Amino acid sequence: MIIIKTNEEIKIMREANRIIAVILAEIEDMITPGINTYELDQWAEKRIVGFNAKPAFKGYISGNRIFPATLCTSINEEVVHGIPSRNRVLKDGDIIGIDVGCIFKGYYGDGAYTYPVGQVSEQARQLMDTCHKALYVGIEKASNGNRVSDISKAIDRFVTPKGYGIVRDLTGHGVGKNLHEDPQILNYDDGEKGKKLKENMTLAIEPMINLGTYRVKTLSDSWTVVTEDGSLSAHYEHTIAVTANGPEILTRL
Prior knowledge:
By secondary structure, the chain is of the alpha+beta class. The protein has helices at residues 7-26, 37-50, 122-140, 148-159; strands spanning 54-55, 61-62, 65-66, 71-75, 78-80, 95-104, 107-116, 165-166, 172-174, 181-185, 202-205, 208-210, 216-218, 225-227, 233-235, 238-243, 246-249. The protein has a 5-stranded antiparallel sheet. Strands 1, 4, 6 and 7 form a 4-stranded antiparallel sheet that branches.
């Protein structure tokens, strides 16, 4: 069931998602060769708590799995859900996706960004640039009266001609009092018509694209999703509200 939010709920979600925007902006300066992902995670947790919010991912239960950290830190071929560790030290030329969520006054904020570590290859930069632009191409279609599938088709038509693989096993989603709500938002065109978008729907739109195949697999930690062929992956995410005047990005400063 798709949950339509009240104006008051969206007001709270603006606050929750502004916290996410602050984290994603401030962490950029920390992402340098030599830092480990545990350090990033500890900083993010303290920063979220400082806003009187709670980390959304730490302790998140999916089936019989419990996520152990505040951030998802996904390096190079890791698509999403990478687990922070003192042993994961960033090096020059890496790229890292940071996905972060918080709970503020009972509502979720959710966002993600992929960062270069030092000097990265031109291939990596083009991948990140395409994925980042695809996010906004999708957001542009999140208008009252359009369909969820219009978001999916727009992302697909932008990305596929460039030769990248669009991850199919993971999707965007509704968000609000729950981290994952209806509807699912595919990043590729599956040929379906899709549900109509309505004013005061809140959505997390998040393209994930790979330098090679769209196929992915999950590592033995039961969380980290990687590209099947070991190619680089990029991931960007905004939480938005559908308004009478078009999409409003909530994950902004």
